[in-house]
Amino acid sequence: MARNGFQKLDYSMLSSYLGRWATLIIFAVTILIAVGALFLKEDDIAHMPVKIGVFDLDSAKVHQRFVDFAGYIREKGGGDIQWRFLKDQDEPTGCDFYIMTSLRFAPYLLRGGLDCSLLIPAQEGRRYSTGGIIVKAGGPDMESEEMTAVFTSRFSAANFLSPYNSLVKTLGESQDEGILVDFAGSEERVIYGVIFGAYTFGGISLERLNVLGEMDVYHRGELEVFLEGEPYPEMVLAVDKSMEERKHRRFRDRFVILADRMPDGLKADLGSFGISGFVPPRPEDIEVIGGLWEVMPPRFGAAMERPGGPS
Q1: What is the C-alpha separation between 70 and 63, in angstroms, rounded?
Q2: How far apart are alpha carbons 104 and 106 in whole angstroms?
Q3: Do residues 248 and 115 make contact, with C-beta atoms less than 8 angstroms apart?
Q4: DSSP states of 229-284 as a string?
Q5: Which domains does the chain have, with CATH numbers?
Q6: Residue 260 phi/psi, 5° resolution?
Q7: Is 213 exposed, middle or buried (0-12, 13-18, 19+ CB in 10 A)?
Q8: pTM for the whole thing?
Q9: Residue 143: left (phi > 0), alpha (psi -120 to 50), or beta?
Q10: DSSP string, 25-65
Q11: Are the CB atoms for 110 and 293 separated by under 8 Å?
Q12: Tag placement on the chain: N or C end, fewer CB within 10 Å?
């Protein structure tokens, strides 16, 4: 009897001992799962807050479409995008990424403050945009004593740098200072300025010219392409170099996939103002962008600070 009682007592003590340890283990595992869930939620790209600064696009035109685009990315688990619209005089600070022209981006690339995360082509299937000089149908009056030209912005490679350099090359370097240059702020104003005779020449991306023709902004017989310039990358998604590389890589990779799969309606909306998609840059693309400053006309390059960025 004593032996059975002793055994019974041992089993009872063992059961109590194991029960306490099981409780402690379950409690510890529960705590670890809870803590892990917090870290996973923070690390999960679906909950990742990302701020993107936007240069060189008219906020009145693109704001709602960008809101729709961010909603689509968020819905598909690609991160929580917030947009911040910036002005020419603003510095690219305070955001994770920046949408900007390659010409605006080039000085920051040279300085090392920003990297090129993605190229933003203006037309699907093409990485670069070709700048062209447009004239009123019938050709320009080359005998005119006054040559006038209008472009969208001094920060655009395809809408200014490429067509302007082609014009100077055709007219001769001696004519450079004699060309009266204006910046209209939009591609539509460049087109109308030439059609209505306010300017002899207009500089515009030929990809954008085709899109605007399809949108009936002008009639095909009203304009002629007088010159074609060098093709350049027009826009980039730049990343602040202080951003954690892992966060950058996770967001970028998911973003590219989702952007490629966006609905046709949203794709058409973004395409209407020059965003046909997002593609990873090649080393040669970075080299071309870094060299843009070397072909900047001196009379305009002097208005910008190098390599610290646009003033």
Answers
A1: 11
A2: 6
A3: no
A4: EEEE--EEEEEETTS-HHHHHHHHHHHHHHHHT--HHHHHHHHTTT----BPPPHH
A5: 47-126+234-301 (3.40.190.180), 129-231 (3.40.190.10)
A6: -70, -25
A7: middle
A8: 0.81
A9: alpha
A10: HHHHHHHHHHHHHHHHHHH-GGG-EEEEEE-SS-HHHHHHH
A11: yes
A12: N
Structure tokens that stand for 150 in this block: 């209008």
Q: pLDDT per position in the chain (311 positions), as tens? A: 455 554 554 555 555 655 565 566 666 555 655 445 444 444 555 568 999 999 999 999 999 999 999 999 999 999 899 999 999 999 999 999 999 999 999 999 999 999 999 999 999 888 999 999 999 998 877 766 688 999 999 999 999 999 999 999 988 876 767 789 999 999 999 999 999 999 999 999 999 999 999 999 998 889 999 999 999 999 999 999 999 999 999 999 999 999 999 999 999 999 999 999 999 999 999 999 999 988 988 878 655 554 444 44
Which residue has 């240069």 as its token pair? Answer: 55
SS3 87: coil
Smallest CA-to-CA distance from 230 within 129, 119, 106 is with 129
